[in-house]
User: What shape does this take?
Amino acid sequence: DADVTQTPRNRITKTGKRIMLECSQTKGHDRMYWYRQDPGLGLRLIYYSFDVKDINKGEISDGYSVSRQAQAKFSLSLESAIPNQTALYFCATSAAGEQFFGPGTRLTVL
Amino acid sequence: RKEVEQDPGPFNVPEGATVAFNCTYSNSASQSFFWYRQDCRKEPKLLMSVYSSGNEDGRFTAQLNRASQYISLLIRDSKLSDSATYLCVVIFFNQAGTALIFGKGTTLSVSS
Assistant: This one.
């Protein structure tokens, strides 16, 4: 079984809809991250959390919110999706250095 | 100057070639450095950490040059399976906390 899982893997939605992307990990890591990846722009950090009570904004947090429900779960929400949030979203975990990524969620906002 | 910069490529090389990528960073207080590999439509995976003394793993060698603020990745005897995008990652600490910055990646295509 994969150590870091993301659901859904693919999602198509409409402008204005609320979307939640889920991430779960079995690695026992305290640190979890959400990134988005766009062609030509690379991976950009949206939010990160170093433990259940810790939430930090990353480079591009506007339009997103997160919830760290437990050590193993970190969800990303788009309260009102817009087309420029169409991207590939990755969740990652780490103990200290190396990051372990989930398989990604491809989100399309029409 | 952007925080982390990589030549996007693509680098097109024949099998057996030696190829090198550089990644420059702007924050002199950067603490940790890594190279990740990402295959098309897949998640990034750690290729190797970069240590101050340099480190080697088989055909791959990573170097850190703090004075000039860059890291490098050298691939010897390229294989078809090396075709991928290589991302450098720089971690540093600032007033806001920990900053983890990915480069945009360098694409390598190895052909027979």
Summary: Chain A touches chain B at residues 33, 35, 40-45, 48, 50, 56, 59, 90, 97-104 (CB under 8 Å). DSSP finds no helices and eleven strands in chain A. The mean pLDDT of chain A is 94. The radius of gyration of chain A is 13 Å.
